[in-house]
Amino acid sequence: MGALKKPANTQKQADKTKEYFRGVLSELKKVHWPSRKQLLAYTGVVFVAVGIVSILMWVVDGGLSIALTKLVP
């Protein structure tokens, strides 16, 4: 018996997968990664923004709750 060969379709799929990951690796090498200092600054900005939006939503929710309580006996 001869050696088992992969079907052509499976080989094409494997080649496409390899090419995809080569492209991904190539793009990751082009990325400008932030420094540790920049990363900490960006993280701080995100935490502050989330805090502000959370407080705003809490105030609006409380206001709507009070308004609806007075409107609906």
Number of domains: 1
**What is the count of helical runs?**
2
Question: Mean pLDDT, rounded to whole units?
Answer: 91
Roughly how many Å apart are the termini?
Answer: 86 Å
Largest sheet: none
Oligomer: single chain
User: Percentage of helical residues?
Assistant: over 70%
Classify the beta-strand content into a percent band.
under 5%
Count of distinct strands? 0
* Topology as a string of helices (H) and strands (E): HH
Which stretches are poorly predicted, pLDDT < 50 over at least 5 residues?
none
Overall, the morphology is elongated
Radius of gyration: 28 Å
Structural class by sheet pairing and helices: mainly alpha
Q: What would your notes on this structure say?
A:
The protein is mostly helical. The chain has one domain. Helix content is 81%, strand content 0%. It is built from two helices and no strands. The chain is elongated. The termini are far apart. The model has no long low-confidence stretch (mean pLDDT 91). One of its GO terms (biological process) is protein targeting. Keywords: Cell membrane, Membrane, Protein transport, Translocation, Transmembrane, Transmembrane helix, Transport. Belongs to the SecE/SEC61-gamma family. This is Protein translocase subunit SecE.
Summarize the structure.
This protein has helices at residues 8-30, 36-71.
